[in-house]
Fold this sequence. Notes:
elongated
Amino acid sequence: MVATAIREHSAQFPPAADGTMFTTRFAGPYRHDYYGSRIFSAAVERASLPKGTTSHDLRHHYAAVPLMQGESVIVVAERLGQENATLVLSTYGHLMLDSEERTRRAVDDAWGVPPTCPRATIQSPDLREQAGFRR
């Protein structure tokens, strides 16, 4: 959806020589104060977002959604343009799915053990063979 909107915008309003996508009629960048108070606030209103929403709020939302769905911190950091995932992890780590439960499910799925099955049954020769263990 976003890629399509950017392509359409770029076709109608080609980026400036330096790659800036949103420019004044003179092909220069908008002043920060003008952009925030006039352009972005008007876009927030047209999009029916809560009054006072900032570009930082949108960035935070963009990072939070994939992390809450289980996406890798490294992938989200790359999408945000971060060189290091540490900042993303320290800022958004609390939004990530419970990794202990996710890990347990991954191992259970790989070994063919139903989640409700007592752990002692992993000693069963049939399950060991299904999981690829050799005697």
